[in-house]
Design brief:
The protein is an alpha/beta fold. It folds into 2 domains: about 250 residues, Crotonobetainyl-coa:carnitine coa-transferase, domain 1 (Rossmann fold, 3-Layer(aba) Sandwich); about 70 residues, no CATH class. It is about 40% helix and about 15% strand. The chain has 18 helices and 13 strands. Strands 5-2-1-6-7-8 form a 6-stranded parallel sheet. A hairpin with a 2-residue loop joins strand 3 and strand 4. Helix 1 crosses helix 7 and helix 7 crosses helix 8. It is elongated and about 85 Å long. The mean pLDDT is about 95.
Length: about 400
Amino acid sequence: MKLEGVKVLDLSLFLPGPHLTMMMRDHGADVIAVEPPGGEPNRRIGLTQNGHTVWFRNTHRGKRSLCINLKHSSGRKALLDLCTTADVLVESFRPGVTRRLGIDYETLRRVAPQLVYCSISAYGQYGPKALKPAHDLSIQADSGLLSINLDADDRPAQPHMPVADLTASLVSLSGILMALYRRTQTGQGDYLDISMQDAVIAWLPNALGPVFAASRSPVPKDERSWGGAAMYQIYPTADDSYLVLGGSEVKFAENLLTALNREDLIPLCRQPPGPVQNPVRDFLRSTFVTQPLEYWNQWFEGMDVCYAPVRDLHSALFDSHLEERRMLLLDSQGNRHLGVPIAFTEEPASPNFSLPRVGQQNEEILTEIGYSKENILQLQNAGTVLCED
């Protein structure tokens, strides 16, 4: 597999870091989850199935667990020893914590110059907000995303995708892979300062026309992507369901409006998004609400229009297309896992569905870096390395 032979130390918690290191594990990396006493918090968040939460199962499959107390000097020493054999370290402490613990990049690079060290934080390692605590929702709010995520009454709505978390995950993965490639040429590791806010801001090119060109914030209901285009819109149906038109190219408008005998509205779809397209929106709204969703599913069959029913998450995930794409996997216990979205032809991913107990591989991992059984027993007796019964 692509990342076979790469060793990753994952000190991060919750979602961004664990998600990115699981993707690396799916493609062959040896990922060691360096867990704090008590273990990864998402072991206990949300619904549990066969002894593990669904969240934990979909961020930690195939990883090994080393549970170590980094507040102990012997724990820090063990981590430094481990870093000499590692390729990547991922952490998500608040800025300044790793320096206080003595596991910051400048310290580790002296013993492990090959290490690619990735820090993921809310606002980055420097700047006026660097020490401000934040999770996904507050980052989305502070970055302007909630101002364009409005409900029918133009009020900010609770987002249902952890956009800041997962953009940080994907940006981090990209940066780590670039650093590993560069290391093949220089032999040297690197340091990545990944800010969740930086990541979401970088993913806004389609939203910044009004901001950059007109020095104003977007008006979502008039913008192409958020309601200003009749052909990029959510419409109710007769059975209190919804359908979506998701392509505002004129060719799709021509195909749809011709089929509905309203070719006279096509010129309006050639206009910029906004109030000028209200007559088209009004017509489509009054049309789609006359029949239930299943009627429209059949009506649109074979038509060259960007159309989709609004489905609930359960029915969407169990769609036959996703099954064929292997985006829903089943382990030997009958537990379901998300599939791997990076589909290589050569050396494809091979997810390992095993899930570690807290500290399950303590002895195995420490033995690999030369610790004797006596050394490990001393660490256990001191409460430096811990294991869940």
